[in-house]
Amino acid sequence: ELKGYLMDQSISSYKFQEYNTSIHFLNKLIHLEPKDLSALTYLGNSHEKLNNYVEAIKCYDKIIAINPLDI
Questions:
Q1: What burial class does residue 52 get, using C-beta atoms within 10 Å of its C-beta: 0-12 exposed, 13-18 middle, 19+ buried?
Q2: Predicted TM-score (pTM) of this structure
């Protein structure tokens, strides 16, 4: 399944500190599943690791908007 492949690739890239690659796969996944909380979390964390704080905050804000009671 494409979604599983994209998530696996993004997590693997994240674990190897290849944050730009992780962002690439996560953006593709989020295009398919805009409300995937796990993907949005990894995307925000990847941006944060690259000091892209504005982008990271956008991801975290989306997570809160999708699921405000699970903070």
A1: middle
A2: 0.94
At 50, phi and psi to the nearest 5?
A: -95, 10
CA angle 40, 42, 43 (to 5 degrees): 60
Q: What digits encode the pLDDT tens for the residues 4-28? A: 999 999 999 999 999 999 999 999 9
Angle between helix axes 2-15 and 19-32 (nearest 10 degrees) is 160
Q: Whose structure tokens read 């674990």? A: 15
Which residue is it, tokens 């690259």?
50
Look up residue 32 and give its two tokens. Answer: 């398919």
